[in-house]
Design goal:
The chain contains four helices and ten strands. The chain is an alpha+beta fold and 272 residues long. A hairpin with a 2-residue loop joins strand 9 and strand 10. The protein is elongated, with a radius of gyration of 67 Å. The protein binds calcium ion (2 copies).
């Protein structure tokens, strides 16, 4: 039993002997164990079904620029723009036709009216002269284009003098230029006085003089030589002497004073 081929042959012989016994055959086991010759080539098979779709390829390179498109339709109307600048003034138009002739006037006794009006002019002129006399001679009022200046012959302390001027509708006089200083000086001399309070003080800060309208000294000052000297320690108010010079004095000094008044207040002339 060492040869496998012989073993398979014996097994085949035994098999076919059994078959021969069954079929009464007498064939001898010789070449029946060899394969037969190769068969003829088969017929061509039927065409196969379509294959599955392949994978998506990579992005292709950018194509060439397309041709210019057709002209589009007219767009919608835009929003109304902002109002433009006012135009230049046009040229003057030609004169219109002459109007119709007026109706004839009535007879007027103009001479009588003229006489009345003339008499009124005379009276107004007299009144103006009277007012001027009262202002300049009796009251001693001096005036600039904008203000009146009036000496008050009532001896008062500085604080009371300021209150008095304010009650009259004005304030203590504030000479801020040489012209005004000269005007007040002449008023003092005309009144026969030697000194008056003016609206200037250094009550808030020693040596820093301010007008009563809270404005500081400006380009003009009228200090006497050596003044202000705060000599009495409390010399915080200012007097003007009849030469027009200024001197700081004690506020409790009791002397006359000079007020000033605006000619116009809130657009209304208070004294013509
Ligand atoms: Ca002082
Ligand atoms: Ca002084």
């Amino acid at each position: 039993m060492e040869n496998p081929k012989l073993t398979r042959c014996l097994l085949l012989v035994l098999f076919f002997s059994l078959i021969s016994t069954v079929t009464q055959g007498t064939e001898v086991c010789s070449n029946t164990i060899l394969p037969g010759s190769k068969g003829d080539q088969g017929e061509k098979g039927d065409e196969g079904e379509g294959g599955k779709p392949g994978k998506m390829g990579p992005i292709g390179s950018k194509g060439l620029k397309g041709e210019l498109g057709n002209h589009g339709d007219v767009g919608m109307m835009g929003k109304i723009g902002p109002v433009g600048d006012k135009g230049d003034k046009g040229l003057k138009g030609s004169d219109g036709p002459a109007g119709f002739k007026g109706k004839p006037g009535t007879t007027c006794d103009c001479g009588r009216y003229r006489k009345v009006v003339g008499q009124m002019d005379v009276n107004i002129s007299k009144l103006r002269n009277s007012v001027k006399f009262v202002k300049n001679v009796i009251l001693g009022i001096k005036e600039t284009e904008e203000k009146f200046y009036l000496i008050i012959k009532e001896a008062k302390k500085y604080k009371d003098a300021l209150t008095n001027c304010r009650l009259r509708g004005g304030t203590l006089a504030m000479p801020k230029d040489e012209e005004t200083n000269l005007l007040i000086t002449s008023s003092i001399s005309q009144a026969g006085l030697s000194r008056v309070f003016i609206g200037l003080h250094d009550s808030d800060k020693e040596g820093q003089f301010m007008y009563v309208d809270n404005t500081p000294l400006q380009n003009f000052t009228g200090w006497s030589p050596g003044e202000p000297n705060n000599a009495a320690v409390n010399e915080n108010c200012v007097e003007m002497v009849n030469t027009g010079s200024w001197n700081d004095v004690e506020c409790d000094l009791t002397i006359y004073f000079v007020c000033e008044f605006w000619k116009k207040r809130r657009g209304t002339v208070i004294i013509q």
